[in-house]
Amino acid sequence: MLQVEVAYARPDRQEILSVQVPEGATAVDAVNQSGIVAIFPEIDAETIDMGIFGKAIKKPAEQELREGDRVELYRPLLIDPKQARLNRAKKKSEPD
């Protein structure tokens, strides 16, 4: 058995759950086994973007886990980061 973590955060709440998974378990397996979907019902383990220690996973259903991995679940972006920076720059340059 492997000891891994599953992490998800919203602006109002975050959870990091420890879970034991069998050798050969995938990131999706860990998410399903962790029970995090019961805490955050908006999570769809089959479609949500995931990463391990901040590195995005392209195919979570195929990504085998290793001892100590932290599977991170990512919320969709509300605005493109480049557009957000542009908006902040414009706001700073406006006279008061």
Walkthrough of the structure:
With 96 residues, the protein is of the alpha+beta class. The chain has a single domain, classed as Roll (Ubiquitin-like (UB roll)), CATH 3.10.20.30. It contains three helices and five strands. Strands 2-1-5-3-4 form a five-stranded mixed sheet, covered by helices on one side. The mean pLDDT is 90.
Throw out a few tags for this protein.
96 residues; alpha+beta; Ubiquitin-like (UB roll)
Secondary-structure topology with pairs:
Blueprint: E1 2-10, E2 13-21, H1 27-34, H2 36-39, E3 49-52, E4 55-57, E5 70-74, H3 81-93
Parallel strand pairs: 1-5
Antiparallel strand pairs: 1-2, 3-4, 3-5
Summarize the structure.
The protein has 96 residues and is of the alpha+beta class.
